[in-house]
């Protein structure tokens, strides 16, 4: 089997597995005042400190959550509510290529009449247009509650100019959130260099368990809570803290940061080989995203005239697991909003596949893919585009 879907989720690190074996099982509620509670609290605070050191922020700026989706929701809704309530700022600015975990809460606020949602356009490789943003901020800065631009895109892998966004926003005192779910461990993240106000990270993308993650929120940046309950995590995220999960996450973050350089070098070499061999075996394949400034493990292609879902199923039947990169709801695949924002026509957008590499990937995975890809593409082309006439935006 060739698993080429590490951007969706990746293997548990053996070091994390060992830690879980050792620590799972004890009754641990870090909010309890007795000995066991205090021991659990110590584990949580130690984990917080290790995560903070890894990305160079203060421990008090780390809030444990259940993962990327929750961190993004707190950042978007929480920041917007607090800024709109306190300072009457109504516009949310997000890039047009955000993950649904950012896009949907922003859209939800807009649908309820609580915000005006404005999307920052991107160019043909999926990089946000900084000139557009500079003009927008100059014209409307007084109305903007927050800006959210992801560190790197999950579908096409394009890395965004986060420091430049933050520097533009800083002139007007507008908080910047960045979804770094795909970036941590793949790119250097030093928050003394990129001074974003909020950052989302997910554990299962870096070898921790599912249901772990954190939101970094700078001291002084206020959010209204999304979850209400026991006021844990200083009222930013109610709910009993997963002490072992915090430890697992801290270990995964430390290892991801420590190994990032070597890991990224190895993955980008492997990825370049994959790209070259895909182009060789299917010469009219179109490589999407920024050819240089992209996640080291990401390769994204359009195969004109072949339905993405059909190629996915045929590959799966041959033991090759990939992704179309975009969410499929109610069984009907919609063209990806990311590819549409980059200017691909909806039919091309639906003819796409993402191959994503991780620590477990090897040459053998690429060999397996290339052995079946030309036949898969031609069979999918012969089947035609199922939804040529019913593409919706
Ligand atoms: C960029 C990005 N943000 C957010 C998420 C959601 O993270 P989680 O699965 O931890 O909720 C994902 C997961 O695919 C992602 O790729």
From TrEMBL:
State the Gene Ontology terms under molecular function.
cysteine desulfurase activity; iron-sulfur cluster binding; metal ion binding
Q: Which residues form the Aminotransferase class V domain?
A: 3-369
Task: State the UniProt keywords alphabetically.
Answer: Iron, Iron-sulfur, Metal-binding, Pyridoxal phosphate, Transferase
In terms of InterPro entries, this protein maps to: Aminotrans_V_dom, Aminotrans_V_PyrdxlP_BS, Cysteine_dSase, PyrdxlP-dep_Trfase, PyrdxlP-dep_Trfase_major, PyrdxlP-dep_Trfase_small
Q: What class of enzyme is it?
A: transferase
* Cofactors that this protein relies on: pyridoxal 5'-phosphate
Q: Which PANTHER family match?
A: CYSTEINE DESULFURASE, CYSTEINE DESULFURYLASE FAMILY MEMBER
* Family membership: Belongs to the class-V pyridoxal-phosphate-dependent aminotransferase family. NifS/IscS subfamily.
Q: What is this protein called?
A: cysteine desulfurase
- The organism encoding this protein is freshwater metagenome
């Amino acid at each position: 089997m060739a698993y080429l879907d590490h951007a969706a989720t990746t293997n548990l690190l053996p070091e994390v597995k060992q830690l879980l074996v050792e620590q799972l099982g004890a009754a641990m509620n870090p909010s309890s005042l007795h000995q066991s509670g205090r021991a659990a609290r110590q584990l949580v605070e130690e984990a917080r400190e290790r995560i903070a050191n890894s990305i160079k922020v203060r421990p008090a700026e780390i809030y444990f959550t259940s993962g990327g989706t929750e961190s993004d929701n707190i950042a978007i809704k929480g920041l917007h509510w607090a800024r709109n309530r306190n300072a009457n700022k109504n516009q949310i600015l997000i890039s047009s290529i955000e993950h649904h975990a950012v896009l949907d809460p922003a859209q939800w606020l807009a649908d309820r009449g609580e915000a005006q949602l404005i999307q920052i356009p991107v160019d043909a490789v999926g990089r946000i247009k900084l000139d557009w943003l500079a003009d927008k901020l100059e014209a409307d800065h007084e109305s903007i509650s927050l800006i959210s631009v992801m560190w790197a895109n999950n579908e096409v892998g394009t890395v965004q100019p986060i420091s430049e966004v933050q520097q533009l926003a800083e002139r007007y005192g507008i908080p910047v959130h960045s979804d770094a779910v795909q970036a941590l461990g793949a790119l250097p993240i030093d928050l003394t260099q990129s001074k974003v106000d909020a950052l989302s990270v997910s554990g299962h993308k870096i070898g921790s368990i599912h249901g772990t993650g954190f939101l970094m929120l700078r001291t002084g940046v206020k959010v209204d809570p999304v979850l209400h309950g026991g006021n844990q995590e200083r009222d930013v995220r109610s709910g009993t803290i997963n002490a072992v999960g915090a430890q697992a996450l801290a270990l995964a973050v430390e290892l991801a940061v420590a190994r990032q350089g070597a890991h990224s070098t190895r993955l980008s070499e492997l990825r370049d080989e994959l790209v070259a061999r895909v182009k060789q075996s299917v010469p009219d394949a179109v490589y999407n995203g920024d050819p240089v400034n992209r996640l080291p493990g990401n390769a994204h292609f359009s195969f004109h005239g072949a339905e993405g879902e059909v190629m996915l199923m045929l590959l799966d039947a041959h033991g090759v697991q990939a992704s179309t990169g975009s969410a499929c709801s109610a069984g009907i695949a919609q063209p990806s909003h990311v590819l549409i924002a980059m200017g691909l026509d909806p039919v091309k957008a639906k003819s796409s596949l993402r191959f994503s590499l991780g620590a477990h990937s090897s040459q053998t995975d690429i060999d397996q893919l290339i052995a079946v890809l030309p036949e898969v593409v031609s069979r999918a082309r012969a089947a035609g585009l199922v939804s040529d006439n019913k593409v919706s935006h």
